[in-house]
Write a structure and sequence with these properties.
With about 190 residues, the protein is mostly beta strands. The chain is about 15% helix and about 60% strand. A hairpin with a 3-residue loop joins strand 7 and strand 8. InterPro entries: OMP/PagP_B-barrel.
Length: about 190
């Protein structure tokens, strides 16, 4: 058992650098978005990205969030469709809190909406976001992510815009291009 634990620890120490290299894919997303407002919030934001350079991924994302504010009968629905970019800081740029993780900065732009049932305010338009986070690699190809992010929605409707600060929690799976190509050929 000790040998297994030691082997896993040694493997994990070099994991973060190997999976965030140019040519690899990232698939996953956020499965929770906790707004710093009152009420229950359930969210899902799947993402797919491609590393265009070492440490730098670009891709697309789709988001759906349902919020039931405390003490109100209305339900709030947020949706988004857009592009994102994420840059992982290298060892030289930031000290690691843990040896098998990386800090990152992330931004997104796209289309989105915020619609409230029962005659509440609504906004549909440009969805923007920027934040900072940390990816903790639990295995060679899987990370758990935490992202503190400010989201803004600017557009038309009964409200000209909305903004919120939230904590996103999710996971990512990192795949080398060779494995993705092999999987596509085996259809």
């Amino acid at each position: 058992m000790k040998k297994l634990f030691l082997g896993a620890a040694i493997l994990a120490a070099g994991v973060a650098s190997a999976q965030i290299q140019e040519g690899n894919w990232m698939v996953g997303g956020q499965v929770a978005h906790m707004k710093f407002t009152n009420g229950l919030n359930v969210a899902l934001t799947p993402q797919v990205g491609y590393f265009i350079k070492d440490n730098w991924v670009v891709g697309g994302e789709v988001g759906l969030s349902l919020t039931k504010p405390t003490g109100k009968n209305a339900t709030q629905t947020d949706w988004s469709l857009g592009a994102f970019t994420r840059y992982y800081l290298s060892d030289a740029q930031a000290d690691h809190l843990l040896k098998n993780g990386r800090f990152f900065a992330q931004g997104n732009v796209g289309f989105g909406g915020n619609n409230v049932s029962s005659g509440g305010s609504s906004t549909n338009g440009v969805d923007l976001g920027i934040g900072a986070g940390y990816s903790y690699f639990i295995t060679k190809n899987v990370s758990l992510d935490a992202l503190l992010k400010f989201n803004a929605l600017v557009g038309a409707g009964s409200s000209a815009g909305k903004g919120n600060l939230g904590l996103n929690v999710g996971f990512q799976i990192y795949l080398p291009s060779s494995k993705v190509e092999a999987a596509l050929k085996d259809r």
